[in-house]
Write the structure tokens for this entry.
Amino acid sequence: MGVLSNKIRREELKPGDHIYSWRHAYIYSHHGLTLSPI
């Protein structure tokens, strides 16, 4: 994992949480939204 990484467990996700996959220079390349409990 890189310096800007935060790993979370599935149990920590709540509906409405935003999930980003970061790349170079603080620019994100993927964005997801949690819709229901996992």
Observations:
- The longest strand covers residues 28-33.
